[in-house]
Design goal:
By secondary structure, the chain is an alpha+beta fold. It is 36% helix and 19% strand.
């Protein structure tokens, strides 16, 4: 029985001829899975909108800005995060298709060309990219949201040599950048990324960023409830006041101090006693008004006390959520859910290699950071589409999860270019494989 009759995917993003993917007797090219991302990009205009924000003063370029953005984006999605990878990928038939070229067309941009491209990005282009990320996030909702939860966190980005604005950070023990990402808990999208110098305060410029995002959300959705969650690095009086002035509900971690410990000591003793009696881990909660010396007014603080086989543990959260006074446990658990956003940041850093900001110039690395965050948003939006497709769509149009190959290795591609232009392009795996991922 031939495998040709099992299933077939046809992509129409290439005007000159359709691209057909189907099982054959030989193994499929492993990077062909990127075609489904290209089709999704064609529908959602990720790369097109991104490239439109970039200045390009060149005349009659061999490689357009959009083409180079697509080369880098799809390379990141497939695990080719280094510019050097594109010295091989530039002649790859699949990557040519992704950049709107036919397999027999000229090669794509080389590593030196991509390096010049990234180093030519202007501050104005980066500011436009910030606005574009926010605008795209606001427009990503199919229906007006009742609430939006913004999670704020940073991750370290180790230096690759002597790069501009990388400094030694005592906590991380390395020369580095800091990447701050504001993400949306409802759809996992990166709303606004910022590349901070290596020893910067994690809240540097955060007030302006939050006001821009909140302003854009409220302009389109006047009645949306906005919540913010962040760890104790953002426990700053000015940030509390900003959230209160903007009508934002916040839950922010708070470092334990002698006053908080004294107010929760009895609860911790109760947790230890109950654990000793039952042998079961205990989680007890309390809440009280607290005003630090630098605060302008008292605020509600929830303290969690734990006792288990590992010992005892106390954590505190300052919050203005209305239900926190009656249900402190629920308020704390809601704060703890920000751990899922931390997982998304780990995926961005480790799986999409956002820690590979290895250009020398700071502005070029800012642009790289935007590319990696764009890859994240393409990935999570497609993942959400697959997991929860609209019910009214025809089932034949759904992007089935089992139709997307896992990108685990590289393979050479063989194209039958002797056929007529109208005949779909089909790809099979060659016998000789390349080395591991870049």
């Amino acid at each position: 029985m031939s495998l040709h009759d099992v299933w077939q995917l046809v992509f129409d993003f290439l005007p000159k001829k359709p691209v057909c993917v189907q099982p054959v007797d030989e193994n499929l090219s492993t990077d062909a899975g990127l075609l489904i991302f290209r089709q999704w990009d064609e529908q959602q205009h990720f790369t097109e909108g991104f490239a439109q924000q970039l200045d390009d003063s060149r005349r009659d370029p061999d490689h357009t800005t959009l083409e180079m953005v697509r080369s880098r984006l799809f390379g990141i999605l497939a695990g080719y995060e280094d510019q050097n990878d594109h010295d091989a990928l530039r002649s790859d038939a699949i990557f040519k298709l992704l950049a709107d070229r036919l397999p027999e067309d000229d090669d794509l941009a080389s590593q030196p060309t991509l390096s010049r491209f990234e180093n030519s990005i202007t501050p104005k282009s980066l500011l436009r990219l910030e606005d574009w990320f926010i605008e795209r996030f606001v427009n990503s909702f199919d229906q007006p949201p009742r609430e939006v939860t913004l999670d704020i966190d940073v991750f370290d980005d180790p230096a690759h040599g002597e790069q501009q604005l990388t400094f030694f950070h005592g906590y991380y023990g390395q020369y580095q950048y800091l990447v701050r990402a504001i993400t949306c808990a409802e759809n996992d999208a990166v709303v606004l990324p910022v590349l901070l110098y290596g020893t910067a305060d994690v809240a540097l410029g955060l007030g302006e960023d939050v006001q821009r995002i909140v302003g854009a959300l409220r302009e389109k959705f006047p009645h949306v409830l906005i919540r913010i969650r962040a760890d104790s690095g953002y426990a700053k009086p000015w940030f509390y006041r900003l959230c209160e002035r903007l009508g934002i509900e916040y839950s922010i971690g708070l470092g334990m101090n002698p006053v908080l410990k004294r107010n929760s000591e009895e609860l911790l003793e109760n947790a230890v006693e109950q654990y000793d009696q039952t042998g079961q881990p205990q989680r007890l909660f309390t809440g009280f008004d607290y005003q630090a010396g630098t605060w302008d007014q008292p605020r509600w603080v929830v303290v969690k006390c734990e006792a288990n086989a590992q010992g005892t543990n106390r954590r505190a959260v300052v919050t203005n959520r209305p239900g926190a006074r009656t249900l402190p446990a629920g308020a704390y658990d809601e704060y703890s859910e920000r751990g899922e956003s931390e997982n998304r940041n780990k995926e961005l850093k480790c799986e999409l290699c956002a820690d590979r900001l290895s250009d020398h110039r700071y502005l070029a690395n800012c642009f790289r950071m935007f590319l990696h965050c764009l890859a994240n948003n393409v990935l999570v939006s497609l993942r959400q589409k697959i997991a929860d497709p609209p019910a009214e769509e025809d089932a034949s149009n759904h992007l089935a999860p089992d139709a997307v190959p896992v990108e685990a290795a590289r393979a050479e591609r063989v194209a039958d270019t002797s056929t007529a232009a109208a005949k779909p392009i089909r790809w099979v795996k060659a016998t000789q494989a390349h080395g591991g991922c870049g």
